[in-house]
Design brief:
The protein has about 450 residues and is an alpha/beta fold. It has helices spanning about 5-15, 55, 65-75, 90-100, 115-135, 155-160, 165-170, 200-215, 240-250, 300-305, 330-345, 350-365, 400-410, 430-450; strands at about 35, 40-45, 50, 105-115, 145, 180, 215-220, 225, 235, 255, 280-285, 295-300, 370-375, 380-385, 390-395, 415, 420-425. The chain has 2 domains: about 30-60 and about 345-455, Aspartate Aminotransferase, domain 1; about 70-345, Type I PLP-dependent aspartate aminotransferase-like (Major domain) (Aspartate Aminotransferase, domain 2), CATH 3.40.640.10. Bound molecules: pyridoxal-5'-phosphate. The site of pyridoxal-5'-phosphate has 14 residues, from α5.
Length: about 450
């Protein structure tokens, strides 16, 4: 350790003064990371842990990437912060142009903020204001459609469209009402619905909702392909495209929240590309800066942008802003992140890694308490169940997922569960050997806490 305090002091201050996110502080045990390198986190004692969740979706190219480190240092020699309220700077401008060039067609304008939640708030408010200012105003369109178990961040607007009961229910009196759709879960399907019919089934529910309510709906908000915080609920193929077709037909704007699934996670730069979808809003954060800096972006179309143009007195301005939106240090990190995607051919090199992850998951799937394994690109999920046939989860109070992760930590691997679902989402830069280590520690954790199982494949 570099400074003078002892580990015990640091740990005591951490327990007392740092209020950790989504953490029961009464039970909190400090794990204090001092340094990192590549896919490895290093704690104050020098112990090393493989970062199995990219520091929660963030570090796509790993930690301490020389290119990212250098980009931030170079920007620091120019200017660290320039407000976006009426001023600009070359780095922020370049990032906006670069994102518009990369994004699905039609997304031409970028509003910068500083977190995933704010990126979603911006889209929600823009959609609302758009219907008041577009050529044929439809001021009745003031509601939103969102999915059950959705997660879009923790500010009140994003919690309103969120639907994770365990996190959100308590705040219900503070939230606005939302039209809800069932989560299009391809694993826990409703009785009588086959896998083949799943997309159609869920799309018919949307069609009914739109037939009845479209004239009150400003926008539909969705996490494309995978509802992550819900427990990596994966949508049936074709669902996203169907949502785009129906929303377009019914004149409802589509907000794609790619805060988690964007930036290469699904194997393409943006998840919407997997179904050739262009949303009206694309929300990015987390991995946008390679996990280095809090930068978020809300991209939108010319159609939306034009509705906000007018002279000052028209009050068509978007009266919304975040002090650090478009911060040059963060934008420098984001530009470098995009450079590394190109120079290292990150997406092309993902193919063998995805295949290796799939092999490991297939073996893990044989365990009697693994109900299903799911994969979307470099995102793996292991659904732990009390009863495999009935697909019943363990009671959440039993913290089964957490126990597996605690065991993995003893093997030098850091992962974090979503209730009963184990999640593997390492940096895209991970090596095949590190994937083996990650999956071996996860499998060992499952065996140690849920019972040994030897499948014929092992
Ligand atoms: C994490 C997340 C958010 C919130 O991002 P913050 O930066 O934590 O505010 C929003 N949407 C999705 C899908 C997320 O995974």
């Amino acid at each position: 350790m570099e400074s003078n305090e002892s580990y015990d002091e640091l740990a005591a201050w951490d327990r007392t003064h740092v209020w950790h996110a989504f953490t029961q502080m009464q039970e909190y045990e400090p794990l204090i990371i001092e340094r990192a390198q590549g896919c490895t986190l290093i704690d104050v004692h020098g112990r090393r842990y493989l970062d199995g969740v990219s520091s929660l979706w963030c570090n796509v190219h790993g930690h301490r990437h020389p290119k990212l480190d250098a980009a931030i240092r170079a920007q620091l020699d120019k200017v660290a912060h320039v407000t976006s309220l009426g001023l600009s700077n070359p780095t922020t401008i370049r990032l906006a142009k670069r994102l518009c060039d990369l994004a699905p067609r039609g997304l031409e304008h970028v509003f910068f903020s500083d977190s995933g939640a704010t990126a979603v708030e911006v889209a929600l408010k823009m959609a609302f204001q758009y219907w008041r200012q577009c050529d044929e105003p439809r001021p009745r369109k003031s509601q939103y459609i969102a999915l059950d178990a959705a997660y879009h961040g923790d500010t009140l607007g994003s919690v309103s469209v969120g639907g994770v009961a365990r996190f959100h229910e308590m705040f219900r009196p503070l939230l606005f009402d939302v039209l809800r759709l069932p989560a299009p879960d391809a694993y826990r399907l409703p009785a009588g619905i086959s896998r083949e019919d799943a997309a159609q089934h869920y799309l018919q529910q949307l069609a009914r909702l739109l037939n009845e309510h479209a004239d009150q709906v400003a926008a539909l908000v969705i996490e494309p392909l995978v509802q992550c915080a819900a427990g990596m609920v994966m949508h049936p193929a074709g669902y996203l495209r169907g949502v785009r077709e129906l929303t377009r037909k019914h004149n409802v704007l589509l907000i794609a929240d790619e805060v988690a699934v964007g930036m290469g996670r699904t194997g393409r730069m943006f998840a919407c590309e997997q179904e050739d979808v262009s949303p009206d809003f694309l929300c990015l954060a987390k991995g946008l800066t390679g996990g280095y800096m809090p930068v978020a972006a809300t991209l939108t179309t010319d159609e939306v942008w034009k509705a906000f143009l007018g002279d000052y007195a028209s009050s068509r301005t978007f009266f919304h802003g975040h002090t650090f939106g478009g911060n040059p240090l963060g934008c420098a990190a984001a530009l470098a992140t995009l450079d590394v995607f190109e120079e290292e051919q990150t997406l092309a090199n993902l193919q063998p890694k995805m295949a290796r992850l799939a092999e490991h998951l297939a073996r893990i799937a044989a365990h009697p308490h693994v109900g299903q394994v799911r994969q979307c690109g470099m995102l793996g999920a292991i659904d732990l169940v009390a009863d495999k046939g009935a697909r019943t989860p363990f009671p959440w109070e039993e913290k089964r997922g957490l126990r597996v992760c605690e065991h993995a930590l003893t093997q030098g691997v850091w992962i974090r569960p979503l209730g009963n679902v184990l999640v593997l989402m390492p940096p895209l830069a991970i090596s095949l050997a590190e994937i083996d280590q990650l999956c071996a520690a996860t499998a060992a954790g499952i065996h140690a806490t849920l019972g040994e199982h030897r499948s014929s494949k092992q």
